[in-house]
Specification:
DUF3615 domain-containing protein; DUF3615; 318 residues; alpha+beta
Length: 318
Amino acid sequence: MPPHRRSRRLRGQESGEECSRSSCREDKEREAAQTQSEALVQVWEPSSPPVSCIWERLWRDWGRRFCIRLDRQGCFHTYPDVGGPFQSLPETYEAIDRYLEDLRDPKMCAEEDKAIIQRLYWPDGTIKRRTRGPVTEKSEMCQMVQALVDKYNEDHNLLEGLAHELKDVLHYNSICEKQKWYYHLNFTAKIKGAGPNECNLDNLFFVEVKCMPQAKFTELLPNCFCRVNLNDNGQCYGCTRDGDVGMKHPSSSVGYTAGHMNVGLPSGYFGKWKRDYEDEEDDDKYVKAREAELRQMFKYREAVKTEEAKAGDGLRGK
């Protein structure tokens, strides 16, 4: 067949073939997502009685962590709240994606500027070095604890009138022991009295959460969820080693798993090499210094490409 005739035939089929491939790919993605959702429900929801589960997932492009809770009715709840409850995991993902897209900062710029901005900022315009600051970290911990409290209320049939109400997260620490990660947290919650004359009081709680990686998720398993008081002084080498001496653990240490082994080094023991500007507290100065470094890097890359192109032309000339 002559090349020009073959080309016309392919162009005539191109649109239909592309649509077919795209449709097939989308169908496979939806099917895979639905299969994953059904598999998660089957794996994590016991047959009798059903127990809710909590997962944590990082949206890496945004630097945001979301907790997803599966309740006894098979519905999915998100922390922070992006709507719902949702009937499937793909539906939950779509809602989170929409929530994040609404936060996107619509900046149009040159390719180099765009690449620099992507290295300096998250899509919502937040400076990347600030996302792991104390305020953001505590906000994420509050979302996690809220999911744990909601799970506790549901598992213990504490309805609206008796449900525990989260007030504040006071302490939180992560511990690595025997190649497993745990969270230890102290928070206050209001316990509503069962009788009409009983007072609503703020109570101090301790919770230990075991982190179980599952593909893209990390399941959060509460090993211990109990009230503590200011006199409780359960031993935890993990928290004291990291300097959190204010964390209250149950006096009966059999309730929690991590922290009984005096091993390892304090958090941050190994020094991290830093550039001079990384300790700069002023955001504008930090951004300018980081941007100058990135532009110098791109300039160097372009110079290397130019030299390589010249060398290639010289070889072809010979």
